[in-house]
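Hey,

Quick one before I head out. I ran the complex with adenosine-5'-monophosphate-propyl ester overnight. Inputs first:
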Amino acid sequence: MSDQTHDQQGESRTFPPDPDFAASANGTADLFDAAEADHEGFWAEQARTYLTWSTPFTQNLDWSNPPFATWFADGELNACVNAVDRHVEAGRGDKVAIHFVGEPEGDSRDITYAELHEQVQRAANALADLGIGKGDTVAIYLPMIPEAAVAMLACARLGAPHSVVFGGFSADALHSRIEDAKAKVVITADGGYRRGKPSALKPAVDAALDHDETSVTDVLVVRRTGEDTAWNDRDTWWHEALERAAPTHEAQPVEAEHPLFILYTSGTTGKPKGIFHSTGGYLTQAAYTNAIVHDVHRDTDVYWCTADIGWVTGHSYIVYGPMTNGVTQVMYEGTPDTPDQGRWWQIVQDHRVTILYTAPTAVRTFMKWGAEIPARYDLSSLRLLGSVGEPINPEAWLWYRRTIGGDRTPVVDTWWQTETGAIMISPLPGVTTLEPGSAQRPIPGISAEILDDEGKPFTTPEQVGYLVLTKPWPSMLRGIWGDPERYKETYWSRFGPEYYFAGDGAKYDADGNIWLLGRVDDVMNVSGHRLSTAEIESALVSHPKVAEAAVVGASDETTGQAVCAFVILRQEAVAEADEPGEGEALVQELRNHVAKQIGPIAKPRQILVVAELPKTRSGKIMRRLLKDVAEGREVGDVTTLADSSVMDLIKKGMDAPASD
Ligand code: PRX
């Protein structure tokens, strides 16, 4: 990692804040002192500054029963009122909340806060008509269309926790998430537009509900593509339900600790974890970080976060943070290369976007496509760039700043997780001297350390350890839905109950900046999407021809990591796979099987059929060695293998064709 801070010319470059930017930045140096002086008081002040409470709180943090925290517990508020109603009440109803850009060219519309207000009220009434009330869960499976935000906010209005499932997940993945959360209603669409054509969504919902028992009574269907779709008794068109519903709805204040949403994320086992978040603490930190890190200025900025609503970034930095701050934002439905590779830059130019928040994988893709593409557009409106989801290598960071940011804008690399709810480690663009490739320091109010194997904190530069968070924070997960033991075990047992174990490796550099070095557990990060090796392995072994499978995340220039699978076939399938041409067909079959079980994002880049897997004498698969093979490296120490010749056999098979 030692050359991480050097760009292609071998220069080490840092970027002090621009004085003009600093002069009007929301995030200032004194926040660090204030948070240091009084951690809880600091957060209470943010909760009062950024939010409107229907019952003001008097309690701050309660950490008497770790790891179960409460924040602002005797206060009451409604997240939708904070994100929508109060802007309208303050006379800003005509302000654009969302510049929606559909993928088909010309398919755009602007939605003001007043329009959003009416939509969320009608949607809340429509959901209430279906029997949804406080504490009921609702699953949302939608493309990137404004209705996704409306659906989430309507749930929040009723105190009904939503569980958004990414539209790229399969029917099976959707089914298990619906049932785990016992959702009563699913909100979906006939489809959305992707890569220039309609892509159906509703059939996956139908398949997900095609089981003997389901908790779901009703499905609301947004008409987006107008394509024919099968219809069931439980289905209602969204637009018809909203038209029928009353246009006004009294929002229900909930206790600060009332769960706002559940979001499933991959862990180290095959079963995804339903991470759930509170209302008051979560919203406080989502709004605060959007203000101090993204530096949103309500009256002048046009903000664009390119994440999908199905991931936590879409929750915190499309819906809850920016809308609570009353900003104007862009929402784009489709892919960056439709109709051509300039689509994003066309959008920035058309809407005069000032703040862009995206993922390193996107930046690296644009680098590959070439600087001449963004150069055709006027990107001079941009004043801040952000990155999230995986480490951004210094070359990509520098390219982003130079090519997209006109060598002018700060770039903030923000580290956080589904579990943390909001940004935790990041530069403040008006304060921090930027170090390309590093997320740098915990933001004001957050405390982190790096521990060695024994759990001792260290500050020695370049020594690699484990990132932990040392103080509770308002937007921390409140648990794993229905599984408090797994919550304790996963996050609070590795280094004892005071340390939240993030699962990421990290180190300090000589200047005390934190460098995130990727996961230390069996979680992969593919294009910023979190995938579990165990989940893909169990998808593979559910195929009748597979006896055993091992999955590793191998480095990939564009996607960060790529899924590589090693499978042992069942006896009867071995002979068949040896037939000419059959091996490749089988690999395709297995890749498609994973896509069907989990979703296309989990499709292995490469599947290698092997006779044996490298195992220790106690039978544990040595993924480290498989990773060496998948990354084309010299295989590491094999002395603990039960049979050291296994690796030679696997390496020989490595010339098997990779498929897309
Ligand atoms: O490994 C870290 C990586 O993404 C993981 C969290 O994934 P998820 O819950 O899906 O949330 C992604 C969006 C917040 C982390 O454990 N990660 C996220 N941001 C960064 C990062 N790794 C390095 N640098 C980052 N800025």
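Residues 265, 312-313, 388-391, 413-418, 439, 502-504, 516, 519, 525, 530 surround adenosine-5'-monophosphate-propyl ester (CB under 6 Å).

Talk tomorrow,
K.
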